[in-house]
């Protein structure tokens, strides 16, 4: 039977390790020579006896042989196989002479070097033998070599009394750093051991009759086994031999950390360990065949269950694709330590100390060490790591570098001799550091910041679960299967609680780090961060670790994973942003204000794999069952898991095209669970013809992107990207415009590319067209100096707002308040008296009426002063404040005027982002003037000119641009600019408002013409996320089911509303998506593409709900609308009214078909609630109105009859509250009654066409402008509305 390799199965290999009558007893040490006696204290060399993979079985004794009849045939005879049959079924690889057989035993002398060496027998080539390569195994030779050492970490010893069977787990790491996870069952079998007169040791196996238990393996096994051992002892006395128990180990090695599951599988083997060796081996073949052909389920909520000889084994998948499965009792680690010691251990791991864990229980070492690494995810320990360090390898503790080892506590004294090690004693629950001989004081462990650990401490009692205490109220359970299942579920539930707490801890630890990243320039300013953290020693050390640098690289790429999603979930309602410059009055978001997120609940389904007899039939039956389950699957996530398994079976069969089809569907439903390694291997093996065939399949680009991403990741593993954490260096040469822009944005001096361009043009040398490095250095130095000066201002708590920024501080000056210093913030001017630093407010910026430059006549000269006029108020006795600024008067006046004007413009335009730009401008003006007073005459001569050009908002106010028409001023609620950080302005092409809940704030989604989607918190208008999956075009956005946003681009990208992740992509459309329309309360969604294809989707299953609609007449389809049981499809020239199945009922045109110029084209088509179609002219201001039912033209509305200039065409139309809002290409919005079509009012706030209008819960309209404007306006549907200070939309109550 041909062997079949199914990728991603539970077991890579199953091994039998130990000694027997074929290997003999080889002393582990040769120092004592060949005269060594058999001793219970002596250590012997262990051997790999058998290795079994999915495709091959290799035995190494008495010679290396590949078993031809593996995988086993369907069971049609008993497990017992004769020696002749076994030999005939084996292919000799390195043939050795067989030992002379007796009727009863095989004898194997230890020191016969022609037969055995001190190395693994698999690497020995017999004299005269022709080397034949071993079959390719899933694990490398070096790992196989090391297996015996980990199976017997204290050395292999023999016993006269049979010890208890034990299990333990360990981790193996190959040269590439890839880890494998192993579970080991140690059991003991009796053998005759004797010595001859020359000191050679012989091991003799019992006869089959002596070893055999009951023939059926059922009742009486223990009594029968005892009788057989007694029989062996009697025979031993007659022959002068001694009975010893020799250890054996069953080992399962897997790519997946299913520790508990593997332990269960091994435990089921105990029944067969006392059987005849050949019978046991035959059973092991069938057992291994099952484990090596059991597919591990992908991340999600669908488990795989197999029946392992009456033992149901369930493989529960990981919840997240980028997080390993948790299959250990994590709560045990919490029972071993107190909270302080536990946090110290975490600190040492995070700081990459040299750590040794000690315990008298090898199994507990793996549990505790793996638990610790689980808690620090997504950080990954990349240094030397071994949960068990064998006794013979203790010398590695003195090796340089970072490592983490698990060592038996009996070696504690020896471990303590190594300087600088962190010793974690699991049995004692303590942690200490071995002192260095050259240091006098005892070393101390750097603690985690107290505020970071508060949440973890609060949950400590919940994490430290004691199941026995819970069991006191439960009755005893006598059903073993029920008890096992109950225990499993309790551990799984507790593991979720612990993993959740660990993730919450890591998010708290790195929240401020992530928010401080400069993603555009791949920069993390660690120096600035440490200043904010008061040079915390933990962060200082953490930033130097390898784990942190890898973490930074992942965050710099804006990796979407469980960490980034949890970060967003815990953010809750965000606070108002600060400018990121000047002196911040308050620190970042407090830990206590972070949103609590409940532990995720899981409802896990199960797929039962059929029983494995013959592999081809097994794959066939599994495929049939998978296809049946797919037709019945109601959840798309379950469907993706089933398709995942089906694709792996197709890979195993060699059906590449079928595998590709299934993988495309997997990528569409859940991109994250794609088996990228399998896909890359499959893609690499494809011929050019097969690749051409693949590219013809819809959705192939998803797989190509996955392959390219995998290749980039592999390259990135070898060649790490550069993350800059040091202070940004100053240039050593004159600066070009690109370098000038880069440094200003990196240092957060300015993000306004227009301002940066103005500054560059005015500072550059007219001959070289470069900014001189000296001038630039002065500019930056004075900007930084001002930051330091502002940061040194001491203010009593509560005087300034939490988000208020100090921008400028004067020298010691005379004022109406006396001698002191004047300070400017983004909200007010205030005064601090000299010496006492007493705080007095001069004026809030919104209270300033005007600034007056004046002079005070002194005794000897006239002193320049600045008079600040406040708006008159009955409470104010004096509305004028005078400051004697002398030579700095004009300087201060320009800075205050720009900040004041920015506030005026922001209030008038309802644009909170203008305040941030005004802060940047004010600080830049200050730095330019300061540097101009010190630098070369070149800058001195035009300093005032440069400063005036930077005073953008001052010029706007002078031009009266803050004065809006009355209707516009009353209706406009908020304005924001999605292009604020873009060099080239883009059209706002799609808008969507998503409602918030008790855990998240409402959000505004803006789709730009370059394909980016920018997501804003709709309370304070912070930019929360920028998505680029929809490049190069984002055509439309729509909420589906309240939990997901569907974005139309080259495909349909489905985003999670809460965490913005895109795991599902629908690529069934061959062209750009033009419309997405939910139908029947979101149960279905209709989507349309430019080529005229219309698809009806069933949302829950993400499958087609009816046949695809495709008409040649629909080619060029620009939009789709639904009205009851009618579809309205429109392109530039024609509007079609159809039935839901696509049958055309009416074709509507503005002019006869014979006329085909742009004057007859329509745009901004909308269906309003009274059953009418409103369609605007693409190149004129006419709106044609048709009846949907009859297709009759009801009215032609001329929007240009309203006051104002011509519209130049209609771009968008939307209805709200019986009013129709019409967005024109001239940039204004014209509102008409939907009932009598009378003009109501006109709104003007865009400088380019109103490209899109979005209705928000029938209360607000959001408009987006063309590329010349690129802004978003939020309008009230009624004039009688206002906006609160927080930014919420609240209607006035009469």
Structure, described:
This protein is α+β, with helices and mostly antiparallel strands and about 1300 residues long. Helices cover about 30% and strands about 25% of the residues. The strands form twelve sheets. Strands 1, 2, 3, 4, 5, 6, 7, 8 and 9 form a nine-stranded antiparallel β-sheet that branches. β50 and β51 form a beta hairpin. The longest helix is centred in the middle third of the chain and has 36 residues. The radius of gyration is 38 Å and the shape is globular. The C terminus is likely disordered.
Helices and strands in order:
Blueprint (H helix, E strand, L loop, with lengths): L12 E6 L28 E6 L4 E3 L4 E4 L15 H6 L1 E5 L46 H11 L14 E8 L5 E17 L5 E4 L3 H4 L9 H19 L2 E13 L4 H9 L9 H15 L10 E7 L2 E5 L15 H5 L3 H12 L4 E5 L2 H14 L8 E3 L16 E6 L3 H4 L6 E4 L4 E4 L16 H9 L1 H4 L3 H5 L8 H36 L10 H7 L4 H6 L3 H11 L5 H8 L13 E2 L20 E4 L6 H18 L3 H18 L2 H14 L6 H10 L2 H8 L4 H19 L18 H10 L6 H11 L9 H19 L13 E5 L3 E3 L2 E8 L2 E6 L5 E6 L3 E10 L4 E9 L9 E5 L4 H21 L3 H20 L4 H4 L2 H8 L1 H7 L7 H6 E5 L11 E7 L8 E6 L4 E5 L5 E5 L8 E5 L3 E5 L3 E5 L5 E5 L6 E7 L4 E6 L3 E6 L4 E2 L4 E2 L8 E5 L2 E5 L4 E5 L4 E5 L13 E7 L3 E6 L4 E6 ...
Parallel strand pairs: 10-18, 12-14, 12-15, 13-14
Antiparallel strand pairs: 1-2, 1-9, 2-3, 3-4, 4-5, 6-7, 7-8, 7-9, 10-11, 15-16, 17-19, 19-21, 20-21, 20-26, 21-22, 22-23, 24-25, 25-26, 27-55, 28-29, 29-30, 30-31, 32-33, 33-34, 34-35, 36-37, 37-38, 38-39, 38-40, 41-42, 42-43, 43-44, 45-46, 46-47, 47-48, 49-50, 50-51, 51-52, 53-54, 54-55, ...
